[in-house]
């Protein structure tokens, strides 16, 4: 059914007693207005027609030629055990990457500079990729290094994989004076402007601006998945609770009154529980803040398939409508 | 203040006891990070600095050369009385336009075809314009005519003024079969793709898809104002009430039960009141669905000023950033 | 010989007695003016040189990679019998198309709307194509549908095959009022502006503006062939004769005189014979109004070869002259 | 009246008895098909409407700002007497140019090289122009010089005036060996490719390829006029007659027979008369081979007006149709 | 004279005894090769011809419309006394700028960040400009600030004035570790890539890479002038002498021998004198390392004239050579 | 080590006693400034890292598909004996080319025009090429022909091989008058502007402007090699000596004194020896005026490898840096 107004509205507006099928049924549009191109008998037939139409576009030759590659040396099964469930326990992202890339071969980019920001070059199913991972919060050096790395990937037409596990950017006087804001924003600018495929995976914490820098929900990843253990939010529950406690204590001190410790403890527990429950991957994924939850052991298979899809999509081109039809 | 984390969060996260001014005060950014270009002493000073910066861009020469023109022959004061307050009483849009354009000179485009869709050519303060106005609901012929007119205005680089007063597109079996959907969508496509300045005015009813076709809130008008008597919404209150009544009656008929007339009457009254209260210009304008309410008698002055602003804005150009700075 | 003036003219103009070979013989140009690049001994040698030059352009790699496909299910031999020799007897173009395309697989585009204008999607030797065919005169709906179909083919970079058999666009009060002129001209605009390869075949009648809409002689087909039974002209002989008879009868009625029936009958017979003799494919093809006559049974082979040629030609590119040579 | 088929044809084709006004009258199109934009009451009204539409395009500001200039020092009246009526009597083109350009100030370009090809720089009513004129047949040096001059005018965005009076390019062994063909074709290429306005005037002889090189009928002049004394053709009558005589004598010599002198004399007279009659400006102008005949004394006024028209036309721009309307 | 080889070489190479005038004299080229466009009788005539040619290009309308502005509040005469002759005595560049710009009105860009690098916005004779000046050596912050400032000027299409007085970029462990190299190179990249007019003035020291950053000799300034007191070189003499002394002392220490203090003192004096003599503005300007020496009191007049020249030059456009001439 | 100033300069300039490793050592840049991407342990490791980085660019698919071809019919070994060691003894360049190209198949371009300038079309290892060679000095016709040939190669995207053996362009009155300067400069313009790969080989003399025309050192050859017997210089020694002798004799004659023949003879001998020693391939190649000396018998292998390299390099593309990073 496709009409400007259905039978009820038509009767209300004009008094005409009409049938919906006459106003905008599929047969009517197929024969009278010409708004139907292919008339399907039912849903199954509709899907079949859609497949035929796409098959007729001549895109069969757009997939990449097959290349040879090696599987990772380290088994994907270890991903389930090797990564700590608690995001507060850091681990080396190279361990994760080695279970995803061809031959477990990684090239480390500026490993000694901004060391907690891990930048790696590797191949996945024969396709060169750049990988960004976190071994801790991002400091000014790390943000600068990530920016440079992303510019290079963009120039070399190499897709970027984000393996996010970060509590955010560094805070405090020293880091502010070192220009944390401007260096962090450079990294976010780079993520935003990348022209190469971006594939993002939530593998642990993804808090605050760190979520932006590691290509979170709003940053245009071509594909974005989450692991079951991931936590996403403005900040962690304990940190949020402490922050609000500080706010309360300072307000009390300014007013010269004493704090109600019991009330504070209750507030702290409440905030922690509230934040943690809404940061949970099962909560956030259900709200469509990613494209689905995957088993960590499937990471290589999922990323490899998404990469091939992205690269093929670039070769499928439709011409823009080039000539006007004068008389409307 | 501009920092990644304020004092409270910093203490919570790291234990450091810091001052906000040290973390991100204006003086700090002016001297340490370099993120401040001009340090203002207070708001007034800040505005003064902003004016100086813009004045330094050298855009003084971008306004159009002054041209001579005649005022309308018919006085703007008549606008207050000539236009019926009740949108259900139609009037000839040419009466309105004649009180806005230079010398009240109008050229009528295809007046006998799709006659309720009024397309006029005229000048406002010396600037050629195309004007779209409604003398009733838009039918397939009117939509086709409007599309053609908008294509021509776009080709001739002529701004378009929308004087909207419409209860929408025509509904009913005859109009659906005549392709109301496709002809209406052509008109909306044209409105969306116009490259010339668009200035829109709500002068009466602006309901449903008619709001789209007459360049309503979401269709990228450069300027969009409302008169106090205007009504904006999915449809008028009485119409909505009748439609819902029909839905109820049909459902009852399908189920073979009788309708509760008293309940229906109450529902009708409620819907009418609810719709009408939310369609009111004072209600919609307060919710930022336009850029402000104007006295109908100021229409020419406001449109003329907006036109000059649009034309000058096109001559003010900033270069894109043209050279990369290699090391981020 | 290539000279501005031959020996006779030279002597007349200047008195000089010269030999043509000295004025512009091949040897002279090869050695003195440098206007000869490769000096051929005779025609055969010239063709051999031309082949060598083209072979040296390095275009061997421009042909498409071979793909697999099925022959039509229905034999081409049936084309000779299935299509009526008299263009006044209509037949279903799908019968013809099914004997040309891969596996006889056709996808019908808007079959119930403007039904006499047949729009099909299929493959020929693995190449996706759009096909336009006529099951009768083109009405406003049919012209609208063909325009839309051609826009889509252009966007999808799909070549279009025109299988023309039409006595033209519909005439008469009803069709005129339905906008036959504007809808027909939209279709002709689309045919003119197509950027994809166009291959056209005259398979029956091709009269009047129908010849334009079905990509006739002047509409830039990459290849245009005719079947032996085709008729091409402003209109059919019988129709022309009747039209002229009507003109005569109306003129007589206006002047209040009686018509000379014997003279009218003679005129009718003369016009019919004259039109039909000049519409005949053997007459029109001899006058170079197409690129040759083909046996209907060869249609698939000819179209397939032309398609491959068009697609390869797009990959053969010559650089424009990019640097000026200062002193002429 | 605008219809696909008139009443007579409709009756012949379909039997329907219709009126032309119903099939395609102006009122019908204004109200039913929408193909009429502005309905004129009569011719005078139509012209008035057309003027209004063009006036509404906002092109009033496209004319050039007025500049000051001097009239020629030498009076235009002398043009009537100074130029010989017989094209075989050469004269100095500078005499002609001095009666057309501002202040009679001419700058001579390479006057000593290819001296019969006159290239001048000057102003006409304040607009810089380049002028090409002939003081005799064009030789290789003259063609080379003209080519270089045209390239420079094109680069400097300066319009070119062609004052043609030439019997063509030089012929004979010496000129052929000097590459007359290639140097002449360079000049014709340059004339063809000029992007600046071209205004051409036939002032005497314009024969053969000289007509091409001096921007004759087929070479895209924006404006092309002729003087009454001009002669245009493949060659002059006497020259054509002599050429044919030579052909006859040579054929006779080859066959070993004697020529019939009387017949030859008659043929010579016939050819001369025939050529001369068809070369005459009154003959050629009547056949639309130029845009009109002008009084030599009006040359400056005509060229100046045409120049202003060309320069203003460049500033009047229409946007191409930029957005498609999806559903045809 | 313009020839490939003169008479002497010709005789040596071929034995031919020729005259230079015949080989490549002006008359020969004017009449034989066509390489002379306008033959001048002497130098004065040549200049006159050149002026006529340029006047014929129609560029009279390219100068900017005159605007009103105020002279500086502080007199230019003070420039002679206010600026110390010894470049080692720093002074505030704002004192200098205030004697050059309209109304002595300066807007300071990031004055507290990288404070020795002075970035100012102002107008000169009505034209908006950005000004770069040095109040000491350039540190990483100062280089970063200058880069940002130059990017903004480029985007706003605002010309940049360089008032150079710098001993270079900061050296030493701290500055190196702060990335002096990369921040300095960014500034030099920005200077190199600017698309707006650049006008440079040597007003004191201009040493080493500081010369690059402040748009010295090789960095494409549209105009570059020097004051008489300026010093330009790799470094100052005393600094160079000390550097070489250190080299000698270290070499001696490595070899375990004693230094010859008398010899070192002599070397020191020699190097100082040598460097200083070659850094002197009278020495460097004589070697064409700038476009001339100006009186400091003329700085505003010179810069204002150069700015107007640059802005007018942008409006004078020559078309690229657009059509090839096939046969070379 | 990479720093703005080393330890010695730092101490001289600031008194600080620093270590070079702290100022700019690799470890420092790897960890502090981030200027090191990959820290190599030694040279071998550095090369290994570089190979890995390039291998990661995904350029494996850029080499051309292999094609079949025939070796030359004539053996390369004959090159060692067939070419005279003394450049004054000319030989036919076709003999040389036939030992380099596939199947020894050559197509001669305008062989009879400007005959000493040899232009050939052929294939090398399956790749179409154009070849320029010298059978003597270049005259105006030869230069014109070479220009045309180079334009065609550029349009057909065909690489050009220069086999240089020329004492330069023709000199003397006749050649000057024939426009040697302009025709020679056209050829040099064409060589300069070629967009196709250029590979150059010094096979004998390469003197004066002939070195420019045959794509010598400064003309941007992608690859440029020399044979051991080649001589490169402004002119040959004997010619230079004679030229200087003429200068002396003329000076003496002008002053009316006698020449000192003994001194002249000594000067002649000295100049000859000096020029010849500096023209020798061993002398010039050592000074990097080419990219290396090759054995003539390796010419085909070297050129074939270079061609494949050039064609592959065109398919390896880096994106330009497309997004700015706002805060420098």
Keywords:
alpha/beta, 2 domains, 7 strands, 2-enoyl-CoA Hydratase, Chain A, domain 1, homohexamer
Descriptive overview:
Six copies of one chain form a homohexamer. With 328 residues, chain A is α/β, with parallel strands linked by helices. The first copy, chain A, folds into two domains: 7-62, no CATH class; 78-314, 2-enoyl-CoA Hydratase, Chain A, domain 1, CATH 3.90.226.10. The first copy, chain A, is built from 14 helices and seven strands. In chain A, strands 1, 2, 3, 4, 5, 6 and 7 form a seven-stranded mixed sheet that branches. The first copy, chain A, is globular, with a radius of gyration of 26 Å. At the A-B interface, helix 1, helix 2, helix 3, helix 7 and helix 8 of A face helix 1, helix 2, helix 3, helix 7 and helix 8 of B.
Short account of what is shown:
With 328 residues, chain A is an alpha/beta fold. The first copy, chain A, has helices spanning 7-14, 20-24, 26-33, 43-55, 78-82, 93-98, 140-155, 173-177, 180-193, 208-213, 237-255, 261-279, 281-286, 299-315, and strands at 107-108, 117-124, 127-134, 160-166, 198-207, 223-226, 231-233. Chain A is globular and about 75 Å long.
CATH superfamily of the largest domain in chain A: 2-enoyl-CoA Hydratase, Chain A, domain 1
Give the low-pLDDT segments of chain A: none
Strand content of chain A: 5-15%
Helical proportion of chain A, percent range: 40-55%
The arrangement of helices and strands of chain A along the chain is: HHHHHHEEEHEHHEHEEHHHH
Element layout with pairings:
6 copies of one chain form a homohexamer.
Chain A (H helix, E strand, L loop, with lengths): L6 H8 L5 H5 L1 H8 L9 H13 L22 H5 L10 H6 L8 E2 L8 E8 L2 E8 L5 H16 L4 E7 L6 H5 L2 H14 L4 E10 H6 L9 E4 L4 E3 L3 H19 L5 H19 L1 H6 L12 H17 L13
Helix pairs in contact in A: 7-9, 11-12
């Amino acid at each position: 059914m496709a009409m400007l107004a259905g039978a009820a509205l038509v009767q209300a507006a004009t008094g005409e007693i009409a049938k919906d099928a006459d106003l905008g049924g599929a047969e009517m549009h197929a024969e009278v207005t010409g708004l139907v191109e292919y008339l399907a008998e039912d849903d199954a037939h509709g899907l079949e027609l859609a497949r035929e139409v796409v098959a007729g576009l001549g895109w069969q030759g757009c997939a990449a030629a097959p290349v040879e590659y090696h599987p990772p040396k380290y088994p994907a099964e270890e991903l389930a055990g090797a990564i700590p469930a608690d995001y507060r326990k850091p681990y080396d992202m190279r361990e994760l990457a080695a279970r995803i890339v061809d031959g477990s071969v990684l090239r480390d980019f500026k490993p000694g500079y901004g060391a907690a920001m891990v930048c790696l070059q590797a191949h996945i199913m024969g396709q060169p990729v750049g990988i960004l991972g976190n071994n801790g919060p991002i400091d000014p050096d790390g943000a600068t290094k990530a920016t440079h790395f992303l510019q290079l990937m963009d120039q070399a037409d190499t897709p970027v994989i984000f393996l996010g596990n970060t509590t955010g950017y560094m805070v405090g006087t020293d880091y502010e004076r070192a220009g944390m804001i401007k260096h962090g924003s450079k990294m976010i600018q780079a993520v935003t402007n990348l022209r190469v495929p971006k594939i993002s995976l939530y593998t642990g914490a993804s808090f605050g601006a760190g979520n932006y820098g590691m290509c979170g929900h709003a940053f245009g990843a071509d594909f974005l998945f989450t692991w079951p253990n991931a936590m996403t939010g403005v900040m962690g529950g304990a940190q949020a609770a402490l922050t609000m406690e500080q706010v309360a204590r300072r307000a009390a001190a300014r007013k010269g009154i004493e704090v109600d410790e019991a009330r504070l403890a209750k507030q702290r527990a409440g905030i922690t529980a509230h934040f943690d429950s809404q940061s949970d991957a099962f909560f956030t994924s259900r709200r469509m803040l990613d494209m689905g939850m995957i088993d960590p052991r499937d990471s290589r298979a999922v990323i490899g398939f998404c990469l091939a899809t992205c690269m093929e999509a670039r070769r499928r081109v439709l011409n823009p409508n080039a000539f006007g039809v004068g008389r409307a």
